[in-house]
Recover the amino acids of this structure.
């Protein structure tokens, strides 16, 4: 594994546990809101689980922007290379979007190794 990509994916997972919120439990990136880090890391996280809609949303948004991300209503679908759903169907569900310039093979490996479900468009 390339150390940079592993660090990116782990930081995105960490951001997901601290960092940006959503409003509902449905998967696939619908609902909730996202933390766009495409310019920095070719990735965006959509926070879809109900956990992310708590009264701590302002703190989650601050974590996103403090980490160089931009808070968005939803992650874009243009140039999408693959997605990783973590904690599917739970209050902590997130969908990590990886774009064409990302190392998609490595992202898929890390996704499945951490219990996520990888898919391509």
């Amino acid at each position: 594994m390339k150390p940079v990509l592993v660090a990116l994916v782990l930081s995105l997972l960490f951001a997901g546990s601290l960092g940006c919120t959503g409003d509902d439990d449905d998967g696939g990136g619908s609902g909730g809101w996202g933390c766009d880090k495409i310019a920095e890391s070719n990735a965006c996280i959509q926070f879809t689980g109900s956990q992310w809609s708590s009264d701590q949303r302002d703190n989650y948004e601050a974590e996103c922007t403090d980490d160089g991300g931009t808070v968005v209503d939803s992650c874009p679908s243009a140039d999408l290379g693959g997605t990783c759903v973590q904690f599917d169907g739970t209050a902590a569900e997130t969908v990590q979007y990886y774009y064409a310039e990302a190392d998609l093979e490595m992202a898929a490996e890390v996704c499945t190794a951490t219990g996520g479900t990888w898919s391509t468009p």
In short: The chain has one domain: 3-115. The mean pLDDT is 80. The helical segments are 3-18, 38-41, 57-66, 104-113.
